Amino acid sequence: MFDRCNRSDRGFTLVEMMFVAAVLAILLTIAAPSMTKMIEMQRLKSTTAEIVTNLQYARSEAVAHNQDVSFSVLSSAGSTCYVTWMQGAVNKCNCANPPGSICTGELHSVSIPKSTGVQVKQNQVVVAPIYTQLFFSADGLQNSAFNPFIIHAVLTNGAASELQVAVCQMGRPRICTPAANAVAGYPVCPANIAELCTTP
Fold first, then answer.
1. Mean pLDDT estimate for the chain
2. Is 88 inside any structural domain?
3. How would you label 124-137 residue by residue, b for 16+ Cβ within 10 Å and e otherwise?
4. Looking at the 3D structure of the chain, how many domains does it have?
């Protein structure tokens, strides 16, 4: 004679499993947009941090080699990029080229596909093929037509969020966020961005 199974020993019914699947689908639908936004925001923050690191690298290379080193932002149809290269090299840079061959005399470059949703600009203009450039002199100072020289990292998908990297004449990069497109956790840029160069 076989023992009857207790109700507690039985598996789930098809109806119960369908109910659980429906609840999970609803939860995922609610969570997906905020998860996407979080990933995009993290891309924006990591891109900005990498820009700061590369600016510091360019400055240190200028001092180490006792030679001017340029930092430029460029654009192509499929990406934006920024490149560190030795001043005095031929000014023929092309963001469509693979890293290592974007500029003559290139020291380092980073290409950011537009599909990432992050775009890098300088002084509010995406420039190609003629561009303004920031350069560090052999004493580590920033020498360009702008003080500060501003590099913008902007989210292009969904919410308009932006971080700005300001490089003042002393050569130290500083990050802020414009009030209109603020990113939490960063100081708001002053209305007159040049004030960043006069505050400690």
1. 80
2. no
3. eeebbeebebbbbb
4. 1
pLDDT, one tens digit per residue, over 36-77 is 778 888 888 999 999 999 999 999 999 999 988 888 888 777
Amino acid identity, residue 157? N
Please indicate, yes or no, if residue 55 is contained in any of the structural domains.
Answer: yes
8 Å CB contact between 109 and 58: no
Structural domain range at position 185: 13-66+114-197
What is the DSSP-derived secondary structure letter of residue 66? T
Instruction: Please check whether residue 189 is in contact with residue 177, taking contact to mean a CB–CB distance below 8 angstroms.
Output: yes
Q: Does residue 171 fall inside a structural domain? A: yes
Q: Is the pLDDT of residue 87 over 70?
A: no
Q: What is the pLDDT of residues 151-197, one digit of tens each?
A: 988 888 766 788 999 998 888 899 999 988 888 889 998 888 888 78
**Residue of 95, 106, 107 lying closest to 60 (CA atoms):** 107
Taking the C-alpha atoms of residue 91 and residue 129, their distance in angstroms, rounded to an integer, is 10
Q: Is position 17 within any domain?
A: yes
Phi, psi of 38 (to 5 degrees): -65, -40
Amino acid at 148: P
What are the tokens at 107? Answer: 């020291």
Q: Which of 134, 189, 196 is closest to 162 using CA atoms? A: 189
Residues in contact with 200: Cβ distance below 8 Å, sequence separation at least 6, in sequence order: none
